[in-house]
Design goal:
With 160 residues, the chain is mainly alpha-helical. The chain has nine helices and no strands. It has one domain. The protein has helices at residues 2-9, 12-22, 33-49, 55-61, 64-98, 104-112, 119-134, 138-143, 148-159. The mean pLDDT is 78.
C-alpha cells in the first residue's frame, strides 16, 4: 500500500500512463507475447492504483486528457483483439469450406472450439469496467469513441 502511494505521489502513475500509451496495442496478442505480457502487467498495476481507495489522490493527477489516453488504449486493445479473433475464425471457416467439408455441425463445432488466449482481453475489460465505475463521466468518452460501435459489431459477429 505504501509502495502504491509512493508510485502515485512521485509520478509513477504518470509514468505508467505514458508507457501504456506508447506500447503498440494494434498487434496480434497471441503472436506478440512480449507486448501482451507487458500490457497485462501495466493494466494490472494501473487497475490496482485506479481504485476507490486512491480516487482522492488520483483526482489531483487525472486530467481529461489522461483519462482519454486510458480509455483510448483500452478500446484499441479490445478492438484489435476482437478483430484478430474474427479474422482467425473467417480464415478457419474458409479453410474448412475449401476442404469441401459438408457437415455444417462439424464446421460450427470446430469454429466454436478454437482456443484463444483471453487474458489480455479480460484484464483490459476489467480495467475499463473499473474506470467506468470509479469515474462515471468516462461513459461519455467510451460511448462517443469511434471504436465503440465497431467493437460492438465485432463482438456480435464473434458470438453469432
Amino acid at each position: 500500500m505504501n509502495l502504491q502511494m509512493a508510485l502515485i505521489d512521485k509520478g509513477g502513475f504518470n509514468f505508467l500512463l505514458t508507457m501504456f500509451s506508447k506500447i503498440n496495442k494494434a498487434v496480434d496478442f497471441e503472436k506478440d507475447t512480449l507486448t501482451s505480457t507487458t500490457l497485462q502487467l501495466m493494466i494490472n498495476i494501473l487497475d490496482r492504483l485506479h481504485s476507490q481507495k486512491f480516487l482522492p489522490t488520483l483526482e489531483r493527477f487525472e486530467s481529461s486528457a489522461r483519462l482519454q489516453t486510458i480509455v483510448d488504449g483500452c478500446l484499441i486493445i479490445i478492438h484489435q483483439f476482437l478483430k484478430c479473433t474474427v479474422e482467425k475464425q473467417s480464415k478457419l471457416q474458409s479453410e474448412l469450406v475449401q476442404k469441401k467439408e459438408q457437415d455444417t455441425d462439424f464446421i460450427y463445432t470446430r469454429l466454436q472450439n478454437q482456443t484463444f488466449d483471453l487474458r489480455i482481453l479480460e484484464s483490459t475489460l476489467n480495467f475499463l469496467n473499473k474506470i467506468l465505475h470509479v469515474i462515471p463521466n468516462s461513459f461519455q468518452k467510451v460511448g462517443s469513441h469511434k471504436l465503440f460501435f465497431s467493437i460492438i459489431e465485432l463482438g456480435l459477429l464473434e458470438t453469432s
